[in-house]
User: Which sequence fits this backbone?
């Protein structure tokens, strides 16, 4: 049978910390919302940079004329 490799030590430590702290439902939701927003912002930035590097004529930052 195929087994998954163990998770990295920092991930295990973070999960243990999250379990050791008592979160209210509102706090948990706020934290997850913040992490989601941060992830989306990072993805948007990465996409924008890729467009700037690969197709600079599409970028809004530079005038076309």
Assistant:
């Amino acid at each position: 049978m195929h087994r998954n490799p163990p998770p990295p030590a920092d991930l295990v430590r973070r999960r243990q910390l999250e379990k050791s702290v008592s979160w209210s439902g509102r706090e948990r939701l706020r934290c997850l919302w913040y992490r989601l927003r941060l992830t989306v912002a990072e993805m948007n930035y990465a996409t924008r940079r890729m467009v700037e590097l690969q197709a600079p004529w599409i970028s809004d930052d530079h005038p076309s004329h």
About this structure: DSSP finds two helices and no strands in the chain. The two ends are 62 Å apart (CA to CA). The helical segments are 9-20, 25-54.
